[in-house]
Amino acid sequence: MLIFSPEQPLLHPLYTEKYAEVYIKRDDMIHPFISGNKWRKLKYNLLKASSLGKDTLITFGGAWSNHVLALACAAASQGFHAVAFIRGEQVANPVLDMCRLFGMQLIFVSREDYKDKKRLFESFEGNKKAFMIDEGGSGPEGAQGCAELLSELEREYDHIFVAAGTGTTAAGLSMGLTEHNLSTMLQVVPVLKGGLFIKDEMNALGASTANCEFHIDYHFGGYAKVKPDLIRFVQDFVRQTGIMIEPTYTGKALFALHDLLEQDRFKKGSRILFIHTGGLTGLLGQLEHFK
Ligand SMILES: *Cc1c(COP(=O)(O)O)cnc(C)c1O
């Protein structure tokens, strides 16, 4: 399957000042709804569901989940029914409206019930032909899809930067680096507090973390939390580059890249690739920060 994710030079005064050669991998351009790493993480899950003769995809997520929306669209385009268990009290927002528009069935469950995903999956009527895809598309099939990004690259890099939520994307990228015998360092930026758990998640998926650095101080208070300096950074970056980012994932990871460059943490002339993991529909819930 052909995908469109150009690898573009990224221009910014800071990169010139620090003699860094920065590129951006535009996974955000893969698809407007099956965006970024979610496309890669779904690929082998959907192939597996098809090969097992399943007709329904069941998944889990928060009310603004990029993964749930991606799955709703992917399911519709490949003829699966889709069901998502949404964490928390019933709410309405544009992401959930679009999920329904794609024909997805949404079931709101309390935070307590949400914890036992296996039980929720089994509680679903007619689950014989249902296939479970974990929150965020995480898991070995997800990592396998993300590993393929490395075969698309036109150049070699000293560093690859990526945001991490579950760590599946980072795990896949690390596997890809190992597969291609690359000495690139993977710079992982967890977007949740206490982000070192990402390392364990990566190891659990069979990925090496010997080639990784974890930058755990760029969570800005926790998942989907923001601070004024992050908002200002996102605003400036979008204005200076014409590339849209959002503050939950790509904003934090790019903030880390800029902060580390300012601290001269990379050698002059370093080649750096930033993975734009997409997820721009999340902005629909955050636009009030930018007023
Ligand atoms: C889901 C998501 C991530 C996190 O990916 P993981 O594989 O869970 O670490 C990063 N960026 C964006 C834009 C996302 O939507």
What does this protein structure show overall?
Strand 4 (81-87), helix 4 and strand 5 form a beta-alpha-beta unit. With 291 residues, the protein is an alpha/beta fold. The mean pLDDT is 97. Helices cover 37% and strands 18% of the residues. The longest helix has 15 residues, at 37-51. It folds into 2 domains: 7-30 and 140-289, Rossmann fold (3-Layer(aba) Sandwich), CATH 3.40.50.1100; 37-132, 3-Layer(aba) Sandwich (Rossmann fold), CATH 3.40.50.1100. Strands 1-2-10-7-8-9 form a 6-stranded mixed beta sheet. A 4-stranded parallel beta sheet has the order 5-4-3-6, with helices on both faces. It has 11 helices and 10 strands. It has helices at residues 13-17, 37-51, 66-78, 94-101, 111-114, 117-123, 140-147, 168-179, 197-204, 228-241, 250-262; strands at residues 7-9, 21-26, 56-61, 81-87, 105-109, 130-132, 159-164, 185-190, 212-214, 271-276. Residues 36-38, 66-67, 136, 138, 163-170, 249-250, 277-279 line the site of pyridoxal-5'-phosphate (PLP). Keywords: Pyridoxal phosphate.
Number of domains: 2
At CATH level 3, the topology of the largest domain is Rossmann fold
Overall 3D shape: globular
Q: What CATH architecture of the largest domain do you see?
A: 3-Layer(aba) Sandwich
Cofactor: pyridoxal 5'-phosphate
InterPro entries: ACCD_DCysDesulf, TrpB-like_PALP, TrpB-like_PALP_sf
GO molecular function: D-cysteine desulfhydrase activity
Protein name: 1-aminocyclopropane-1-carboxylate deaminase
Topology overview:
Elements: E1 7-9, H1 13-17, E2 21-26, H2 37-51, E3 56-61, H3 66-78, E4 81-87, H4 94-101, E5 105-109, H5 111-114, H6 117-123, E6 130-132, H7 140-147, E7 159-164, H8 168-179, E8 185-190, H9 197-204, E9 212-214, H10 228-241, H11 250-262, E10 271-276
Parallel strand pairs: 2-10, 3-4, 3-6, 4-5, 7-8, 7-10, 8-9
Antiparallel strand pairs: 1-2
Helix pairs in contact: 2-3, 2-7, 3-4, 7-8
Bound molecules: pyridoxal-5'-phosphate (PLP).
Pyridoxal-5'-phosphate binds at residues 36-38, 66-67, 136, 138, 163-170, 249-250, 277-279.
